[in-house]
Amino acid sequence: MKNTMKKSDALDASDASNDKPDTQQLEVTTYDDVFGEITDDGPNFRNVGFTGTVILMMKTQIGLGVLAIPSALDVLGMVPGIICLLTIACITTWSGYIIGDFKINHPGVYSIDDAGGIMFGLPGRVVLSVGFCLYYIFNSGSAILSLSIGLNAVSTHVTCTAAFVAIAAIFGCAFSSIRTLGKITWLAWVGLPCILTAILIVTIAVGINGGPASASSNDWVSDWEVTTKPTFPKAIAAVSNLLFAFSGTPGFFSIVSEMRDPRQYGKAVLACQAGVTIVYAVIGCLIYYYCGTHVSSPALGSAGGTVKIISYAFAIPGLLVTMTIVTHIPAKFIFVHLLRGSKHLTSNSLTHWATWIGCTSGITVIAYIIASTIPVFDDLVSLIGALLGPVMCLQPMGAMWLYDNWGKGKVEKKKTWLSMVIWSSFVIAIGCFLMVAGTYGSVMSIVSAYASSGGSAAFSCADNSNST
Question: Phi and psi (nearest 5°) for 32?
Fold first, then answer.
């Protein structure tokens, strides 16, 4: 008789730190609460180990957001900026940790909309489904644009920017069509050190030069400030950029669902967030310290000249992997929902492949159109991040803890339970505040940009790597 042992039971006995596929394991584990039966004839969607999980999480976090941290510190000032950075790091670490607990308590959860459906029924599922897809599609569009900036910088604008945007979209679609996160882990192993190397090159360069490329003289002194007095719209927009740097949290649902042992997830979150926070704080402080108000955004352009070309050359693989992940996650989200409960989900059938390629191609085409046609794109992405970032990273996680633990208070109201109720409510409240205030700040930034320059042309050929 065919062995139908539940996959999660068999996986508990496996070595979660080993990222290599275990062929013997596939012979005895055939069922998963999300993906159903997994056989040798189809992809293994449960093949990400502990180390691979940490790397995927870090690459999901360290991408586009880190390039805006120095400019956020320029707006807020060094000390308030770092305080905000650490505060957001703590809140999003807790939010990410709660995802793992909720997954253990509800094994059938694959994505944030499943959690919304459990807590709030159909309205919660619909709202979070739409928000999740929009959020990642705009992230994918931002990644395409970042890749085009890198290609422009490395080639010194050898051709039309619209062509580079198309090239970035094609390569991103190809890599995001890899079917499992277990295989994309290998790309993350390449992409993460590449983006970190690029940032370190710029940091070292501005340190050696004693300032940015735009410094007016050899005796130039950085004008960085301990504190500043920004307007409220600018300050809250900067805080939204810091939240965006930690906005990989909703993607953690997909990652934990493809782990061999979800019980290792909590340790992976702590390791990821600790590493990410240290990188953000050190890089952000150093670049802002040496560049002051002359810091570029993206930060890789701060050193200028040859260093700019070299840093973007290292960054391109990292930016490509970022696009791969932020395109793969929403495509997999749609794919699983279309084929869930069907034999085609884990087979190599024509329906399986046609649906999967259709999902990755569809996401890429929409992201390409967004990246090519929307003027003042950075400000618009900031708007989407402010409007949807808190909904994806904060409020649902506070509600998830309350949903799973509220009943315990009816038995015995302990101090720890009461403190967690207050904390979860605070996370929901701060998410609502950042959503409203951040959206306001982003709208004001867009209005200001239009008033000063009128925005950018759609499908422009102009070099987009020289903005500061």
Answer: -135, 145
Q: What kind and span of H or E run contains 31?
A: strand 31-32
Which amino acid is located at 115 in the chain?
Answer: A
Is a pLDDT exceeding 50 seen at residue 7? no
Element of type H or E holding 36: strand 36-37
2 DSSP assignment: -
Q: State the pairing for strand pair 36-37/31-32.
A: antiparallel
Separation in Å, CA 287 to CA 10, 162, 201, 282: 48, 30, 11, 9
Q: Which helix (H) or strand (E) holds 356?
A: helix 350-373
In 93-114, which positions are buried (b, 16+ CB within 10 angstroms) versus exposed (e)?
bbbbbbbbbbbbebeebbbbbb
Task: Tell me whether residue 37 is in a domain.
Answer: no
26/456 Cα distance (integer angstroms): 52
DSSP for 102-127, written as a single string: HHHH-TT--SHHHHHHHHHHHHHHHH
Assign 6 to helix, strand or coil. strand
Give the residue-averaged pLDDT of 394-417.
88
Tokens for 258?
């493809």
* Class of residue 226 by CB neighbours under 10 A (exposed 0-12, middle 13-18, buried 19+): exposed
The sign of the dihedral angle between the CA atoms of 280, 432, 269, 267 is positive
Whole-number Å distance between alpha carbons of 54 and 194? 16
Kindly report, residue by residue over 228-250, the tens digit of the pLDDT.
888 888 888 888 888 888 888 88
Which pair of tokens denotes residue 344? 């085609």
d(C-alpha 147, C-alpha 322), whole Å: 10
Residue 91 lies in a domain: yes
14 phi, psi to nearest 5 deg? -85, 165
Asked whether residue 148 is assigned to any structural domain, the reply reads: yes
CA dist 215 and 294 (Å) reads 8
pLDDT given at position 360: 95
Q: Is residue 430 classed as helix, strand or coil in its secondary structure?
A: helix
* CATH of residue 218: 1.10.4160.10
Q: Decide if 439 is inside a domain.
A: yes
Q: How many domains does the chain have?
A: 1
Which residue range forms the structural domain that includes residue 75?
48-453
Question: Mean pLDDT of all residues in the chain?
Answer: 82
